[in-house]
Structures are given as C-alpha cells and as structure tokens.
C-alpha cells in the first residue's frame, strides 16, 4: 500500500471519528436539556399535587363547616338505619330487606332540621 492510500484511509477514519464525536456531543447536550426539563416538570408536578391536596382539604373543611350538626336523636336514628332497621313512622323497627333505601326513613333522618326531632 502506498503512502497516499494510507493517508487517505487515515483522513477518512479521522473524518468519521470527528463526525461521531460531534454526534455524541450533540446527543449529550440534548440529554442534559431533557434531564433538566424532566426535573423541572417533576418539581412543578409535585407543587401542583400539593396545591390540589391543599384545595381538597379546604373544600372538605368548608363542607364540614357548612353542614349543620345533627342532633343526638337524629344521630341515633341514623345509626339504627345504618344497622338495617326502619326509623320511619310507616315501618318503624322492622328490618330493611337487603338494606334497601327507604325514602321515609331518609326524610326522618335528613329532612328539615327544624321539626320536633331536633332538640
């Protein structure tokens, strides 16, 4: 092999190595940008989750504060109803079959708060 052919091969190899090196540098820069963007998005995501949790807690607290408290007698009726018994004047004391809902019972427990049961 003559010197010229050897130098040509060396030049082509150097050119390919240089090209691969540039590609690697570009990939490395892109990877660094993506990692930085990913970190920023993770931080922002966590801040948003924290904000949603905070707002949900506020909503729950406001809902609890706005609900009028039930009297002891209504709480007792609610407990009996949850245990599977009717508390309405139509079926009072009988078992609710398959825990079916009873409109009459629900009205007695959760109906207007100003009737004779409160107190």
From TrEMBL:
Cofactor dependence: Zn(2+)
Query: Where on the tree of life does the source sit, at the highest rank?
Result: Bacteria
One cellular component term from this protein's GO annotations in UniProt: bacterial nucleoid
Set out the biological process GO terms recorded for this chain's protein: DNA replication; negative regulation of DNA replication
Q: Where in the cell is it found?
A: Cytoplasm, Nucleoid
Which keywords label this protein? Answer: Coiled coil, Cytoplasm, DNA replication, DNA replication inhibitor, Metal-binding, Zinc
Q: How is the cofactor bound?
A: Binds 1 zinc ion per subunit.
Q: What is its main location?
A: cytoplasm
Q: Where does Zn(2+) bind?
A: 86, 88, 102, 105
* Family matches, as Pfam families: YabA
Q: Could you list the residue ranges forming a coiled coil in this record?
A: 10-58
> What's one GO MF term for it?
zinc ion binding
The task this protein performs is described as: Involved in control of chromosome replication initiation. Inhibits the cooperative binding of DnaA to the oriC region, thus negatively regulating initiation of chromosome replication. Inhibits the ability of DnaA-ATP to form a helix on DNA; does not disassemble preformed DnaA-DNA helices. Decreases the residence time of DnaA on the chromosome at its binding sites (oriC, replication forks and promoter-binding sites). Tethers DnaA to the replication machinery via the DNA polymerase beta sliding clamp subunit (dnaN).
The entry describes its oligomerization and partners as:
Homotetramer. Interacts with both DnaA and DnaN, acting as a bridge between these two proteins.
**Family affiliation:** Belongs to the YabA family.
HAMAP family recorded: YabA (MF_01159)
Q: What is this protein called?
A: Replication initiation control protein YabA
- Provenance organism: Jeotgalibaca dankookensis
